[in-house]
Design brief:
Strand content: 35-45%
Helix content: 25-40%
Largest sheet: 8 strands, mixed
Order of helices and strands: EEHHEEHEEEEH
Distance between the termini: 39 Å
Number of helices: 4
Radius of gyration: 15 Å
Number of strands: 8
Shape: globular
Structural class: alpha+beta
Length: 163
């Protein structure tokens, strides 16, 4: 049975025996709910010092994955700003499963998206229609996102978006 929380569709119940893990899961849901909607609040979910975004499946064909690790605020904003500032349209997130780690500050998410956006200059001003599948790993420090790591099929994305 699906549940919608803050505009994010959850396909499975959210369960965590540990209260800290439960609070971190709430941050994960808010993270997805703010996507393309509230960049200021989105950044407030992150640690103040040395946040990190990891995109291990890197390819030169997908502009935002040209760097494998984005460390520190300048690099993290260089990754997220073009998404928040230049994608306009629908970017819906569906959380298929939330898997709390043995460490309550690690949360693994299986998700998928339904995207229909118009991109800005950074992305070549293209229309992007894409249904993606992802595995994301969130690591927390003090209830804030310290790192976000995402795995997805870049070949599928390039088939839709590539030049």
């Amino acid at each position: 049975m699906e549940t919608v929380i803050k505009g994010v569709t959850l396909a499975a119940p959210v369960e965590a025996a540990n209260e800290q893990a439960r609070r971190n899961i709430d941050v994960v849901i808010e993270f997805f709910s703010l996507y393309l909607k509230d960049k200021k609040r989105f950044y407030e979910l992150w640690v103040a010092d040395d946040p990190e975004v990891r995109t291990p499946y890197s390819t030169t064909e997908v502009k935002n994955c040209g760097v494998i690790t984005h460390s520190g605020w300048d690099a993290v904003k260089a990754f997220w700003d073009p998404i928040h500032d230049e994608m306009h349209g629908r970017f819906d997130w569906f959380i298929d499963e939330i898997i709390p780690g043995a460490d309550p500050d690690t949360v693994v998410v299986r998700s998928h998206s339904d995207i229909d956006v118009r991109t800005g200059p950074f992305w070549g001003g293209k229309n992007l229609r894409y249904e993606g599948r992802y595995v994301q790993i969130f690591r927390f420090t003090g209830g804030k996102v310290a790192s976000f790591e995402e795995y997805y099929d870049t070949a599928q994305l390039n088939a839709v978006y590539g030049s």
